[in-house]
Structures are given as C-alpha cells and as structure tokens.
Amino acid sequence: MRYFNVFIFIASIFFLISCNNSKSGNRANNTPTHDQPHPTIPVLNFGTFHMGFTNDANKTEFDEHDRKNQERVHKIAEMLSEFDPTVILVEQEPQYNKQIQKEYKSYVENPDTVFTNPSEIELLAYELGRLSGTERIYGIDHKMGYNYRIGHEINNTVDPEWYNRYYKDPLKHYPSVDLKRDSLSLLKKLQYTNRDRYLDFLIAANTDMLTHAGTDGNFEGADEAAKYYKRNLRMYLNMNRIDLTKEDRVFILMGASHTAFFRDFMSRDPKYRMVNTFDYLK
C-alpha cells in the first residue's frame, strides 16, 4: 500500500507539471499579455534589374527611354499598387532623400514629367506611389565597393578548380533558374527575378562562392564576401532608421541581390512580415 501511495503521489506531481506546461504554452500562443510580440509591419520586398544606368558588372538590356517600355513598367506599378503602400524605400543613399521627395512630389503633380535619365525609381517607384497615394519615400542604400573577381587576381590555393569552373558559367550550376531572361517579357522577367531560387543564386554568386578563393593562410575571398554582407546589413539598418508603425505598409524596390539579403534578414526579424510578391505580380 505504501508503494502504491508513493506511485499516486509521483503521478500527481507529473500531472500538475504537465498541466502547468500546457497552460504556459497556451498563454504564450493565444492569450494577450504585455509580453505579446509587437504587431508586425507588412512589407513587399521587390527585386528588379536596374532600368537605367548602372555600374553593376551584369546589366540587363532595357531601353528606359522607349515609351512602350515605360508603359509596361507602369502596368507593373498598377499591379503592385494593390498592396497600397504607405512608405516606399528605394536603392538610393539617404543623403539624397530631400531631392527624391521633391522630385517625387513634382511627379505626382505632373505624371507626364519626362526624366532625362530615368531609372526604376522614376519609372516604377514614383508611379506606384502616385497610384497608391503614398506620401513617404526614402532612400536606404549604402555604397561599399567589393571585388567579386578576387579569385582571378590572386594565387588561389583554396579551391581554384571549383572557383574557376563555377564563375565561368554560374547559372550552369542552377538548372532550375537557367533561363534566357533577356528573351522574357518584362512581367515574366520580374516574376523570374523574384523567385526564391533565383534570389538564392544571387547570394551564392555574389558572396558565398567567394569562400573558395584565398592564398595560403589568408581569407581574401571570405573578406570580400563579408564586404557585401556588410553593405546589405548597413542598408537594412538604414531601413530600421525609418519611423514605421503597425499602420504602415512598406514597399521596397532594390536590385534583386539586395532583395535576396533583405528577404533573409526579415525572415528572422519579428518586426516585419513579408507579403507574397506573387499575390500582386500576377
């Protein structure tokens, strides 16, 4: 009988512990408390190619002065306007914010404005903002140079065979994204650009594969890759400088390699909630 009572006592203890754990879990998931996470801010994180002049090594052929192309871009803006952003962030340095905002306001007042050298900012961001009634637009870029060809300029002793084979034709190693992008329509091209697999490729080709390059005892490839990570982290910090609330809806327009990094940063950041780009880019 004594052993039976001990058994009952121990079983009761385990039952109480189980109940407490269950209640604790339910409270964390379902019951509003002061510890509840801050409401997340919806973000449409949109990647593009540069539609005007760019210093990027890889360029996409696109005549930004062609009226038909401009109309195609405006059609994309019309699709994206369903997101109804209250804030637009673009790949421009914050020091130019006053100039951007002045130019944007002028465009809203006169949509027939002809820009001398339009980029995706003038062609897409301004039109999207005009259609959505967006009042706030900011640049979040941070310029930093890095040498993505470092492996060709040093005596690579890490893995030169792989490095040279990879960079001879990077897309060859990603059959699911090896498409003729330049032959696609603008809509298809942007849809393709925003696919997760292509964004993964951009991170690998721009940074991660540089870790196969270095001289004996040194880390030249990794150090160059770190510069690009650093640039994107600084850009992300610039975004976090913007005064945003739960009532805001944020649209980010950048070159797709930055979009790829921001996708990863925001996927772990409880402040933001990325919406599905393809709910709008149909």
Automatic annotation (TrEMBL):
This is Uncharacterized protein. It comes from Fodinibius halophilus.
